């Protein structure tokens, strides 16, 4: 009787384990130079008063000009600045090389049968759409005004957010309804 009881327990445990297995299909997209999801503390800093650029050992890009009156958003140790729009609908990660944003866009192309929820533009104006998730980033919530972050000017308005690379003049405009590169 004990042998049958043991066999029944083993079979029941096996059935439970088989039911717990799952796989998620998809193709993650990542750039080898940039992490797909940073690991930072989850506290969310808030923007303060306008500040001067923090002292830096590296030179700013040649030809870069910080807009007058722009609030400087200093990068994390990783070199990224993480922001969220005032509406809370758009979140972005900004590096010296690119800006990537995620939002519930309404007019983005389909990627493998799913509407793209992410867009990235490089400092040279190359834009691409992706399906992804920025994860739990320590984003600063922007107000409707002008900011500067790692060589990009950020103009946040009710109509959307414009990111302009200060060195090249290229960038993108992002809103829920449209995304445009320039």
Description:
The chain has 182 residues and is mainly beta. It has a domain at 66-182. It has one helix spanning 2-20; strands at 71-72, 81-84, 91-94, 98-102, 110-111, 114-115, 118-122, 127-130, 140-141, 146-149, 152-157, 160-165, 171-174, 179-181. Strands 1-10-11-12-13-14 form a 6-stranded mixed sheet, with no helix packed on it. Strands 8-7-4-3-2-9 form a 6-stranded mixed sheet, with no helix packed on it. A two-stranded antiparallel ribbon has the order 5-6. A hairpin with a 2-residue loop joins strand 11 (152-157) and strand 12 (160-165). The chain is globular, with a radius of gyration of 22 Å.
Q: How does the helix and strand content classify structurally?
A: mainly beta
Which radius of gyration do the C-alpha atoms yield?
Answer: 22 Å
Uncertain runs: 13-24, 26-62
Q: How many alpha or pi helices?
A: 1
Give the spatial strand order of the biggest sheet.
Answer: 1-10-11-12-13-14
Biased composition (Polar residues): 24-36
Keywords: Signal
Organism: Mycolicibacterium agri
Protein name: Lipoprotein LpqJ
Summarize the structure.
Keywords: Signal. The chain is mainly beta and 182 residues long.
State the main characteristics:
182 residues, mainly beta, six-stranded mixed beta sheet, 1 helix, 10% helix, Lipoprotein LpqJ, signal
């Amino acid at each position: 009787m004990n042998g049958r009881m043991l066999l029944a327990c083993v079979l029941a445990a096996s059935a439970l384990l088989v039911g717990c297995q799952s796989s998620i299909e998809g193709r993650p997209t990542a750039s080898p130079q940039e992490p797909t999801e940073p690991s930072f503390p989850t506290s969310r800093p808030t923007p303060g008063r306008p500040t001067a650029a923090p002292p830096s050992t590296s030179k700013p890009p040649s030809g870069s000009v910080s807009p007058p009156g722009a609030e400087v958003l200093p990068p994390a140790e990783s070199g990224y600045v993480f922001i969220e729009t005032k509406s809370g609908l758009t979140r972005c990660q900004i590096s010296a090389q690119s800006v990537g944003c995620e939002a519930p866009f309404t007019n983005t192309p389909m990627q493998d049968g799913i509407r793209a929820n992410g867009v990235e533009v490089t400092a040279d104006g190359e834009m691409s759409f992706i399906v992804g998730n920025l994860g739990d980033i320590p984003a600063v919530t922007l107000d409707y005004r002008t900011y500067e972050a790692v060589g990009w000017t950020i103009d946040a308005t009710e109509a959307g957010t414009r990111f302009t690379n200060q060195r090249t003049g290229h960038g993108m405009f992002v809103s829920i309804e449209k995304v445009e590169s320039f």
